[in-house]
Amino acid sequence: MAQDKSLKNKPLTAQQIQRNRLITQARYVVERTFGNQARWFGSKILRYYGRAKVHAWHILQAMAYNLKRLPRLYVERFLPRQPQASCVF
Questions:
Q1: Is residue 54 part of a domain?
Q2: Please, are residues 59 and 87 in contact by the beta-carbon 8 Å criterion?
Q3: pLDDT at 80
Q4: By residue range, what is the domain housing residue 52?
Q5: Given pLDDT bands bounded at 50, 70 and 90, which one contains residue 87?
């Protein structure tokens, strides 16, 4: 889905702004993943020709991405949060 853009002297309506917000919330989750893969693994340039090799490359990148995020996901899911010490003066 493409987001709506305002034109010169024609701002977006309230309905278009709300639609853009909904699209942004859905796209953020996916775009964040691809952005991290591009930053961490240099996936902006495709290094292979052929559908099978390209598919295998994407699968390997997804696996590497998941392995890189695994320690943090494990900590967030399985370890209890420690209460923060509050300093009151």
A1: yes
A2: no
A3: 74
A4: 14-76
A5: low
